């Protein structure tokens, strides 16, 4: 049997404490892309201090891009900057910015544009949610998820677009959403926010075409990252059963797709949603963490 091209963690290995790829993995993972693919390219990645955003920051830097990452936790950003510097010799710019604060977003986009001469690709990857039955959401919990994933993403999109318009510069936005086509029980807040982002993106992909701004989304399925800490162990044991490949994706699967979209090869892709989920959208039941007994008649999940 052929070995997989990239490492896929064994979901049943109880000895693994690490969730997702290590910095050593990210420095050494093979890539299909040419090492100078993104020379001269400027990329801002929100949530770039961990998980998929960190993998994107590593890969973009390895391919020659000038990268900035933002998040709420300075230590995570600094650590990522140092690890990428060590692996690639490149300088990653860090912004301790909460995307829920529009003034802070405005200042970050202005600064990174001024420092670099202009952003080429904005990747809105920051986000998340907690698992809970919708009927039990508190107002604060609902607002936290909507404010992060919908409002925060929008402040970033609008500020970048305004700056591109005033600079007369073309730009590209890639929004990381989720695979929400059939809904996702215990994640209704995030489904609402991500569906909002997908249709916001499709709409402005048309509105902003005259400004030479393209907008696309990527919908990951179950991708093993540090973010899995949000979920109970029992649910994690079942996540890989949510797709017919019976696998978890990893951050590199998503990072390589982002680099493809950022490259000239994707110049004619606009207003699209690309799903990376091992076939989850077509498969079985919609409860990644397992169904309540009410539904689970034959133990199918
Ligand atoms: C299994 C099936 C899977 C089903 C779903 C399976 C999805 C699989 C695929 C997706 C995987 C991923 O996205 S993995 C990536 C996950 N990564 C993340 O989620 C990281 C970022 N997330 C966050 O920062 C937080 O979750 C988020 C709520 C969005 C923003 O946080 P804030 O800092 O604003 O909020 P907090 O102060 O933590 O919480 C604000 C309020 O939210 C509510 N709240 C917060 N955590 C809560 C919790 N665990 N349970 C209930 N309620 C909670 C409370 O009301 C909180 O108020 P108080 O009561 O006053 O405290
Ligand atoms: N892993 C998966 O299976 C899937 C993940 N996703 C989504 O993909 C994205 C990346 O997730 P993943 O890498 O797995 O998880 P992580 O939890 O590692 O990444 C989320 C990142 O977003 C940052 N972030 C969260 N809230 C804010 C905020 N208000 N302002 C700025 N930064 C913020 C976090 O940093 P900090 O807390 O320091 O601010 C963190 O670095 C998220 O939007 C996630 O919901 C979607 C589908 C599946």
Outline of this structure?
The protein has a single domain (35-282), classed as NAD(P)-binding Rossmann-like Domain (Rossmann fold), CATH 3.40.50. The protein is built from eight helices and nine strands. The protein has helices at 23-28, 51-62, 74-88, 102-116, 139-167, 188-207, 233-236, 251-262, and strands at residues 42-46, 66-71, 93-96, 121-124, 171-176, 213-220, 223-224, 249-250, 273-276.
Protein model, in words:
This protein is α/β, with parallel strands linked by helices and 301 residues long. It has a single domain, classed as Rossmann fold (3-Layer(aba) Sandwich). Helix content is 38%, strand content 14%. The protein has helices spanning 23-28, 51-62, 74-88, 102-116, 139-167, 188-207, 233-236, 251-262; strands at 42-46, 66-71, 93-96, 121-124, 171-176, 213-220, 223-224, 249-250, 273-276. The strands form 2 sheets. It has a 7-stranded parallel β-sheet with strand order 3-2-1-4-5-6-9, with helices on both faces. A two-stranded parallel ribbon has the order 7-8. Helix 7 (233-236) links the parallel strand 7 (223-224) and strand 8 (249-250). The radius of gyration is 19 Å and the shape is globular. The model has no long low-confidence stretch (mean pLDDT 93). Bound molecules: ligand 8Z2 and NADPH dihydro-nicotinamide-adenine-dinucleotide phosphate. NADPH dihydro-nicotinamide-adenine-dinucleotide phosphate (NDP) binds next to helix 2, strand 2 and helix 5.
């Amino acid at each position: 049997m052929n070995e997989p091209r990239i490492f896929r963690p064994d979901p049943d290995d109880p000895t693994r404490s690490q969730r997702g790829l290590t910095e050593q993995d990210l420095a050494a993972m093979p890539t299909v892309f040419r090492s100078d693919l993104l020379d001269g390219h400027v990329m801002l990645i929100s949530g770039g201090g961990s998980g998929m955003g960190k993998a994107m920051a590593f890969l973009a830097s390895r391919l020659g891009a000038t990268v900035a990452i933002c998040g709420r936790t300075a230590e995570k950003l600094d650590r990522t900057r140092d690890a990428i510097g060590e692996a690639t010799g490149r300088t990653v710019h860090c912004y301790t910015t909460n995307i829920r604060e529009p003034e802070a977003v405005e200042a970050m986009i202005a600064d990174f544009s001024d420092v670099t001469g202009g952003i080429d690709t904005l990747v809105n990857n920051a986000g998340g949610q907690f698992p809970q039955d919708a009927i039990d959401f508190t107002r604060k919990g609902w607002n936290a998820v909507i404010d992060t994933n919908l409002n925060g993403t929008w402040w970033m999109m609008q500020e970048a677009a305004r700056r591109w318009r005033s600079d007369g510069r073309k730009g590209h936005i890639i929004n990381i959403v989720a695979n929400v086509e059939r809904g996702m029980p215990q994640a209704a807040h995030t489904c609402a926010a991500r569906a909002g982002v997908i249709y916001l993106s499709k709409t402005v992909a048309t509105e902003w075409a005259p400004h030479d701004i393209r907008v696309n989304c990527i919908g990951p399925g179950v991708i093993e990252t540090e973010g899995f800490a949000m979920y109970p162990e029992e649910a994690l044991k079942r996540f890989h059963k949510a797709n017919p490949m019976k696998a978890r994706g990893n951050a590199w699967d998503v990072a390589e797709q982002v680099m493809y979209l950022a490259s000239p090869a994707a110049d004619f892709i606009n207003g699209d949603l690309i799903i990376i989920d091992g076939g989850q959208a077509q498969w079985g039941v919609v409860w990644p963490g397992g169904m309540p007994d009410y539904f689970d008649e034959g133990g199918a999940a």
